[in-house]
Here is the input.
Amino acid sequence: MAITREDWGMSDNKKVNLFTLTNKNNMTVKIIDYGGIITEIIIPDKNGKLIDIALGFDKLDNYLKAHPYLGATIGRFGNRIANGTFSIDGKEYKLACNDGDNHLHGGEKGFDKIVWDSEIQGNTLKLSYFSKDMEEGYPGNMNVEVSFSLTDDNELVIDYIADTDKKTILNLTNHSYFNLNGEGDSNDILKHSLKLNCNQYTETDSGSIPTGVISDTLGTPLDFSSLTELGSRINSDFEQMVFAGGYDHNFIINGNTDSLRLAAELQGDISGILMQVLTTEPAIQIYTGNYLDGSVTGKAGKAYTKRSGICLETQHYPDSPNHAAFPTTELEPGKQFKSTTIYKFSC
Here is the structure.
């Protein structure tokens, strides 16, 4: 395994680096320290052909413009917070409402839009960032580390660590869009098949904010207890599907929270590539690119249209600070947040 570094331009008067991780199986993962963004994942398909399965760009300038969080590290808080408001110990905090009436993915300048400090440590790329007290409205000076490593078992391992000097909230994830048939060679992911180790999900209102109700997936279009083609039920008139315009739901992973366990399996219909997602997080957001509108063009010169990629975002529940019954996203001084997610690929 090896990691190389090259200059990829400038942002905020800071140098941006592109890191290339490779293993013995001709698998390659490219990551930039701007936004902690995964720009490429190249892997052999069932015929041995190398294909890029991650939506993204081949130039930094495209990432510096508005885009739908392609490949980005998300923080301080992934997903939505209702009305951009939460409270800790009776004190209310107000965040930017950058998604209609709600706060999304850390605000106007979340972790996806900053240049991280970067360091190669053996076979690991370590990104670190010091987020100042009240940055984007969040309390506490926070140290955050995100580490990426690529194993010879074709596993992309992402480790998150954080601490704070004041009680705060935190929900870190990665927002890669996958197309297991190739990011520039096929139209959509509707014939991909998905299986989830999840029997429940958090219901949402029409604004994608959890109602607080936890429901069973059984008997609904959100039942992925066996490998199921994504397009088979994506246009269902089931209210939760209508609200989201497809899949954009938080699924609760079976098993003990904090233990590494299988959350999801996704398979490309043409490539035969199987991606397994393992995580210590309590939930996973499945998002089928419902809002991709063709305004963004990727590495192969192909416009990313509706459902041309799927996100599998390991996470705590959306709007957790406003739901006491949800697993807490609070982080206290003297304690350390730790989380691991693994994307494992095979044919």
Remarks:
- DSSP finds two helices and 28 strands in the chain.
- The chain has a mean pLDDT of 97.
